[in-house]
Amino acid sequence: MSDLMNMVLNNANTQWVLLATMLLGIASGVLGSIALLRKQSLIGDAVAHAALPGICIAFMLTGEKSLLALLIGATITGLLAAYCIQFVISNSIIKEDTAICLILSVFFGFGIVLLTKVTQSPAGNKSGLSDFIFGQAASLVGSDVKMMAITAAALIVITALIFKELKVLTFDPEFAKGLGLPAGFLNLVFLSLLVAVIVIGIQAVGVILMAALLITPAVAARYWTDSLGKMIVISGIFGAISGVAGTLISTLGEGLATGPFIVVTATALFLFSMFFAPGRGIVTNAIKRQINHKKINRELTMQKERGEYL
Amino acid sequence: MSYEAWIILIGSMAGITCGITGCFLILRKLSMLADAISHTVLLGIVLAFLISQSMNGIYMLIGAAVVGLLTVVFVQLLHSSGVQEDASIGVVFTFLFAIGVILITLYAGDVHLDVDHALMGEIAFVPWDTVQIGFLPELPKAFLMLSAVLLIVLVIIFLFYKELKITSFDPAMAAAIGIPVLFIHYLLMGMVSLTTVASFDSVGAILVVAMLIAPGASAYLLTDKMSVMLILSGVFGVAAAIIGYYAAMLFNVSISGSMAAVNGILFALVFFFSPTKGYLFKKFALKKVKYGSEQ
């Protein structure tokens, strides 16, 4: 444990990685809350899986592991997958869930095909592209981490700037149209923000589990409040805690992937919220019911003693 | 039988089994739940391995079926406690999958069970992994497991065809005439778990989703009859397995990934060119109507 403290305090790279995963957690918690209320959580899952072929194509084209190129590739295939889902839903009898599942698995299949192709080449063999599947925050180098941190911070700022518009659009699309808000454009902006946060997250969390960082903190935050503003803040905090804790735990052992630990931390926070959140938690509710029950019983007894019968 | 023939046969059997099961998932809007199960089955397999300390197929089937059903139960619990359905699926499967991955890296790293294998399957090695049971000649394990599951799936569909059909299209009516809707639901989810785990060795946990959903979705765009859809879906599954194998040999890439990709390409073809519900046909029909009204 003291080794861990030492490493955190003295190693600049570790501090950057922690900062980056924290900002990433905040950004994905914030955007995930809005995605949750817009019922777009699982589209995030599909986008994350669909980033894999983009990463591989970018690597094949550039021939080196430049994070920027990989992320651009991931963004293109991610957006393409989101577009394909919309296209299939609006042009056939296929329902949303089937379309998401179909696009997700087929894109991932293409990704695996390309990944096997990449790893056959001598340069690809040690490129560590497969780190993208489960995430490996420890493998991040300085410049990558700074880019990740800056992008995550930018995403948080942009979301804060258009928060009011997104809120109206989420809860009352008709009203938003009446106000003259460009709904189509805002939807596109939100989708791009979502894709961006997924793309910068995949190196730390991995394509398969990235969806959890969007969904789980948001669902947990939903237990604590009914106001979107507060929910976003809480979800951001939960996201940050998961990111930091997951990264720290995974650096404890050799070769441990980061993604699974981030997800487990997020789920632990979710379970805690589900049981103990004031207002909605299962245990809190049971205690409240118990207290209420006692109160009613006492009043009934008092009424009987006073001779008042119902 | 030659090595190549075994791979094609095993791939085709996985294709048929997944294709048939997938039809019901599409009709019941349960695709995402199948996606969730295909991820969590990994945990079942790891737990079965850790408890039994063997790679015996029977333990894995049991472990996978149990965790698969648990996934459904957890999603149901969260959903009924007020969480949106898509979010509850997201929370449950990512958590169970993450635990599975952690357990594999911590405890099972040195055996033949590893993460890459779990994701992509190793159909190329399947024909060598043989076993001898009773009077039968030596057969690949995956083949035996898939035949057993295919048989179970076919028997269930044969016995409960009417029930599966009516609960798929009109659950309220089904409940009204006394069909145990919930039982059928769990039966189907059990079928999905078994199918996933039987295909696990060959195509891996994630790509099995493509084999479950894509053939059924293609078939759905070609017919309005459930029996025809089931058969077409099986045919698409087999076609994707065979074409996928040869494509993989041609380009020298992962066989299971290539099968999933071919499944997607077949779907795209049907999506655009289906004679009744295809995209181009609809555009064409719309033009004809417009042209007709101008005259």
TrEMBL record, chain A:
The entry's localization annotation reads: Cell membrane
- Name listed for the protein in its UniProt record: Metal ABC transporter permease
Q: Which residues cross the membrane?
A: 16-37, 42-61, 67-88, 100-119, 145-163, 175-198, 204-224, 231-249, 261-283
| Cross-referenced PANTHER family | ABC-TRANSPORTER METAL-BINDING PROTEIN, METAL TRANSPORT SYSTEM MEMBRANE PROTEIN CT_069-RELATED
What is the organism field in this record?
Cytobacillus gottheilii
Which SUPFAM superfamilies does the record associate with it?
ABC transporter involved in vitamin B12 uptake, BtuC
Q: Which Pfam families does the protein's record reference?
A: ABC-3 (PF00950)
Keywords for the protein's UniProt record, in alphabetical order: Cell membrane, Membrane, Transmembrane, Transmembrane helix, Transport
Q: Which residues form a coiled coil?
A: none
Q: What is the similarity comment for this entry?
A: Belongs to the ABC-3 integral membrane protein family.
Q: How does it sit in the membrane?
A: Multi-pass membrane protein
